[in-house]
Amino acid sequence: MDWIYNVNDPLWETLVGSFLIFIVIILLTRMVGLRSFAKFTAYDFAFTVAIGSIISSTLTSSTSIVHGAIAITGLLALTYAFSALQKRFRPLDRLISNKPLLLMDGDQILYKNLKHARIQKTQLIAKLREANVLNFSEIEAVVLESTGDISVLHKTTLDSTETLSPDVLEGVRNSP
To answer: What's one Pfam family here (predicted)?
Structure first.
């Protein structure tokens, strides 16, 4: 019966520990940078790692089902609370979330931004090839997204008077 619930399980310590580990993972991921865990925000990565660890501990019988369920419930409550707080408090949102960063403005490579994002020029060029860019003059903008992906925005045609809508680059930083 101990595998379902054990009176010796440190339930409150687990909730506090879950919160602390979650914060540490977010902070470390923010320090290391966006490209460390492409396709994840720091927030997503912290949550995924923490949930995976709890599930692993529960399934390998190093903790009870109730203990694991309470830890997962605590993390889910924490993510819900963080989401609500991020919407209300912009400074918290800026602290937790990476904002997209402009890597190319038209045909100009922004080397300072590449350096800040820890992206090599060769990696940028590879991404341009993936996006079927034949010439820098075809590029309207290149953005490092908050997930670590790189988006290449093409000009509609070289002779077109149509320009990029400012709304498309809303929230994108021009400098680190």
So the answer is: DUF421
